[in-house]
Design a protein that fits this description.
globular, single chain, mainly alpha, 18 helices, Na+/H+ antiporter like fold
Length: 409
């Protein structure tokens, strides 16, 4: 099947499955992933993962990040990372990482494979969490803010550890490991400094009464209304590029770039127009491709140990749930909120697959472990909205959307 035919079939089936699940009050994400499983090697084998579709999927990730970032405020995210919020993020990383390490030891994996297993289990994929929160319409609630902040910290921590592991020489010494850790930490500090400095500059200009929206309006006047979309994309791409240059994943920088843009930087009509354009392109076209592509990646025949796969799935779900509940209670959430947070933190998807792919390409893990990690990414993404719907029945979720709080503690 040609690329165009594959893409069209993937979009149509993913959209149909997504709408079918939405009709029964389930998030569209579930149907979109199932569409990929159905069309992929696991069932019908009509469409196989390939570099071209992977490239389109990466574009979808970028636009999902951009759309979600525009709907949130950087102050809310930075606030969720302070104090106990940072403790919550650390718990959300450390407990699953230790759980992965325990599974690795029980199944006799060497140190490197154990580290990569722990990394993949500890991740909460930022694009997946954002899309699920957006589908549930709870992005700008305590659960949404803490989940996104935790996902950002978890992903950055996982990529930091990944950078250290990949940078350690084959014959490691204490000095070499210390140098690698110092360099990776320095790069993280540079990325944080770049984001915070620009945020401070924009806030300073706003307090001084500067009309920041004059810049995009001037460009629109000279180049047309379509230029607004290009301006925003270019701005966010710069952040993604800086993130990649420093050794982190593109989506980390892109997300913070999108967060820096809010309605104060545009005329209200322009901002609404931008959101509408992005919503149409992302929700109606590229986001379904991204989640359907996750389904295409699943190939059950490559898994060589069912017991190992079951253990990985169980530990990945239980440790994230435990971390969310414990951490959520520490930051003052109600039991239901904390349970809902633990459910959302289970979504792994793209970031976990990025780490797994790098480990597989570098020869740190074999095909069996890689396939198990792909299964984990799909499974946890798939069950996240299902688990959340059990924690938050429709009537409770409606109340939570309106008030941002739950009654029962």
């Amino acid at each position: 099947m040609s690329l165009l035919s594959s893409l069209l079939v993937l979009i149509v089936v993913a959209r149909l499955f997504g709408r079918l699940f939405a009709r029964y009050n389930q998030p569209e994400v579930i149907g979109e992933i199932l569409a990929g499983v159905l069309l992929g090697p696991a069932v019908l084998d009509l469409i196989r993962p390939n570099p071209a579709l992977a490239g389109i999927s990466e574009l979808a990730v970028f636009l999902v990040i951009l759309t979600a970032g525009l709907e949130m405020k950087i102050g809310h995210i930075l606030g969720a990372m302070r104090g106990r919020g940072l403790l919550l993020a650390a718990i959300g990383f450390v407990i699953p990482f230790l759980g992965g390490g325990l599974v690795g030891q029980l199944f006799g994996l060497d140190a490197m494979r154990t580290v990569f297993l722990g990394l993949c289990i500890s991740i909460t994929a930022l694009p997946v969490a954002l899309k699920i929160l957006e589908n549930l319409d709870i992005l700008d609630t305590p659960i949404g803010r803490y989940a996104v902040a935790t996902a950002v910290v978890n992903d950055v921590a996982a990529l930091l550890v990944l950078g250290v592991v990949l940078g350690v020489p084959s014959q490691p010494t204490f000095g070499a490991v210390a140098t690698t850790v110092a360099v990776a930490t320095g790069k993280l500090a540079l990325l944080a400094g770049f984001v915070l400095a620009l945020n401070w500059t924009l806030e300073f200009l706003h307090r001084r009464g500067a009309s920041i929206h004059v810049v995009p309006e001037t460009l629109v006047r000279y180049f047309g209304a379509e230029a607004l979309f290009g301006i925003v994309v270019l701005f966010v791409l710069i952040f993604g590029w800086v993130s990649e240059m420093l050794g982190f994943h593109f989506v980390i920088g892109a997300f913070f770039g999108a967060l820096l843009l809010d309605q104060r930087h545009f005329l209200a009509s322009r901002y609404n127009e931008l959101q509408k354009t992005l919503g149409s392109v992302t929700g109606g076209f590229l986001a379904p491709v991204f989640f359907a592509y996750l389904g295409l990646e699943f190939d059950i025949h490559a898994i060589d140990s069912v017991v190992f796969a079951v253990a990985v799935l169980a530990v990945s779900v239980v440790t994230k749930m435990a971390a969310g509940v414990w951490g959520g209670r520490l930051v003052g959430m109600s039991r239901r909120e904390a349970l809902g947070l633990g459910c959302i933190l289970n979504g792994r998807g793209v970031m976990e697959l990025v780490v797994a792919s790098i480990a597989y390409e570098k020869g740190f893990i074999n095909a069996g472990i890689f396939s198990t990690l792909v299964l984990m990414g799909i499974f946890t993404t798939f069950i996240t909205p299902i688990l959340f719907s059990r924690a938050f029945p429709p009537e409770s979720l409606d109340d939570y959307r309106k008030t941002g709080t739950t009654v029962t503690r």
